[in-house]
Amino acid sequence: MKTRVISAAVALVLLAAAMYFYRTVAFEILIAAISAIGVYEMFSAKGMNKTVKGITVTGVIFAAAIVFKVYDEFDKYFPIVAIAAVIVMFALQLKNFDKIKFELIAYGMAVSVLIPLSLSSLAFIKKDFTDYASGLFYILLAFAGAWVPDTGAYFAGRAFGKHKLCPNISPKKTKEGAVGGVVASVIFFLLYGFVFAEIAEASGITMQVNYLYLAILALILTPLSIIGDLSASVVKRQCGIKDYGNIMPGHGGVMDRFDSVLFVAPATYIFISFLPIVAII
């Protein structure tokens, strides 16, 4: 538990640093780094980092590059970059056709695209909501939508858990824990909106919060967070691994912490694009 707390504290410090440099390209660089590490971990889960190193390197570089699609200057070159990555992967397969199955190529291309595109939702939030207070509010909300349900479910499951949610995938998860995750999310979201608005007010920014939309978003994000967590667990079980990595002692790898973010971040971006939760008055 001590190791998990220390790792979580370090992660929070890094998140605070990212928020401090939110207005600079450092934010996109951080997302690109997380995407690249996540993709590498997914390749490693299949042993591709040892058997097909060239494809692994291509996938990791491509994943990092996708994030910068948020910039118009790069976006017009994105199709060229994507085609180049595909050509390189297939060229490497032709060179080693006897040991590289098409399934590995398909798997490699899928994770190299899906992970960074999903996390890029955070960069698009920054791009679309140019007001610093609003952008910061939504970015932190996306992370909360991924991690608060997990924390709420953990404690509710330990206290009240009796009925298994998905015993063949994640034996420790319970239906009571899932309900606890929903309750924790709704309460946290409402408190978060109130506290953030108060802090903004103290900083000279008047922020209007739609608490109904906040509650609705919490109800939407909680099941997505659970699905993301369970989906990652399925992959780990099929690959025969316990964790995706050990970059965060006590927590595992990047994918062990960001599996839910992959589902929650895009949903948050879609929701606030149509139903903005905060407005600067």
Summarize the model shown.
The chain has 281 residues and is mostly helical.
Write the layout of secondary structure elements.
Layout: H1 2-20, H2 26-45, H3 48-51, H4 53-66, H5 72-75, H6 78-95, H7 102-128, H8 132-160, E1 164-166, E2 170-174, H9 175-202, E3 207-209, H10 211-239, H11 254-258, H12 261-274, E4 278-280
Antiparallel strand pairs: 1-2, 3-4
Helix pairs in contact: 2-4, 2-7, 4-6, 4-7, 7-8, 7-12, 8-9, 8-10, 8-12, 9-10, 10-12
Protein architecture, described:
By secondary structure, the protein is mainly alpha-helical. Helix content is 75%, strand content 5%. It has 12 helices and 4 strands, in the order ααααααααββαβαααβ. The strands form 2 sheets. It has a two-stranded antiparallel sheet. The protein has a two-stranded antiparallel sheet with strand order 3-4. A hairpin with a 3-residue loop joins strand 1 and strand 2. The longest helix is centred in the middle third of the chain and has 29 residues.
Distance between the termini: 44 Å
Shape: globular
Q: How much helix is in the residues?
A: over 70%
Q: In total, how many beta strands?
A: 4
Contiguous low-pLDDT stretches (5 residues minimum) are none
The largest sheet is: 2 strands, antiparallel
Give the percentage of residues in beta strands.
under 5%
Estimated radius of gyration:
20 Å
Keywords:
281 residues, mainly alpha, two-stranded antiparallel ribbon, 4 strands, globular
